Amino acid sequence: MERTFAKIDYESFMNALDDATEKGERIRMVDFLAVDEFVSENSIDTTRVHDFSRVLEDPHATIIKTGMMKGFYVYSLDKKKAYLYKHK
Predict the structure, then answer these.
(1) What is the pLDDT of residue 1?
(2) Which residue range forms the structural domain that includes residue 14?
(3) How far is it, in rounded angstroms, from Cα 59 to Cα 8?
């Protein structure tokens, strides 16, 4: 199974991130136990995430744990780009 990052609409992602934050559906990277659990349950390849993050000048990562936008995201505030980690 190939793991990749799909570019998504930045503005839509930021709106979804705001909504997830307000609803308590966002996992911040400093919440190590919750991140580890999500990464394990969803077979996230952290090496792939790390390598991909290097191409962004100011990489940020976050998790939306439930709902329509559930997933692991990498984004750049400076470049205004957002990517969703996907399994193909």
Answers:
(1) 59
(2) 3-87
(3) 15
Cβ 38 vs Cβ 63: under 8 Å: yes
Dist. CA 78–CA 57, nearest whole Å: 8
- The DSSP-derived string for 22-41 is HHT-EE-TT-HHHHHHHHHH
Cα of 42 vs its chain's centroid, Å: 12
pLDDT per residue as tens digits for the range 18-52: 999 999 999 999 999 999 999 999 999 888 888 88
Give mean pLDDT, residues 4-23. 95
Provide the domain count of the chain: 1
